[in-house]
């Protein structure tokens, strides 16, 4: 497997990443999602790059044919929003996203400004479906 990616697993602890989040609400929301992902996945999180917290690993192939390793699901407590990785790809999980609450999406990402603005049960179902669907 090629390993020319800049974003790789590090020895940084998830606690260090969360501790560096200045906004208390974002830090609290990130901890709640981290706990949810840990519970659903049954694995311990690993920090990838400076601030992405991932669970599990899976291979993927880029358009140029290179194979890489990435985390199955994850999060990053960004300044603008809590970024959740691996929960939607190419229009998947639209049924859950329609019921989730206030959020936006990107390629494979769900962005949440405040955890209180989303339905916790739907978020759990979304994380469960993403974890089960990603396989290892």
TrEMBL record:
Residues 1-22 are annotated as: Disordered. It comes from the Bacteria. Residues 26-130 form the YdhG-like domain. It holds the Pfam family DUF1801. This is YdhG-like domain-containing protein.
């Amino acid at each position: 497997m090629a390993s020319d990616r800049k974003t790789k697993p590090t020895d940084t602890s998830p606690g260090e990443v969360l501790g560096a989040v200045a906004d208390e609400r974002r830090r609290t929301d990130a901890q709640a999602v981290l706990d949810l992902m840990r519970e659903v996945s049954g694995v311990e999180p690993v920090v990838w790059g400076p601030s992405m917290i991932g669970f599990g690993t899976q291979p993927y192939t880029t358009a140029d044919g290179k194979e890489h390793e990435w985390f199955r699901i994850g999060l990053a407590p960004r300044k603008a929003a809590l970024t959740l990785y691996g929960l939607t790809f190419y229009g998947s999980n639209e049924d859950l996203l329609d019921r989730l609450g206030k959020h936006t999406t990107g390629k494979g990402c769900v962005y949440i400004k405040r955890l209180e603005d989303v339905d916790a049960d739907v978020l759990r179902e979304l994380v469960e479906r993403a974890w089960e669907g990603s396989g290892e």
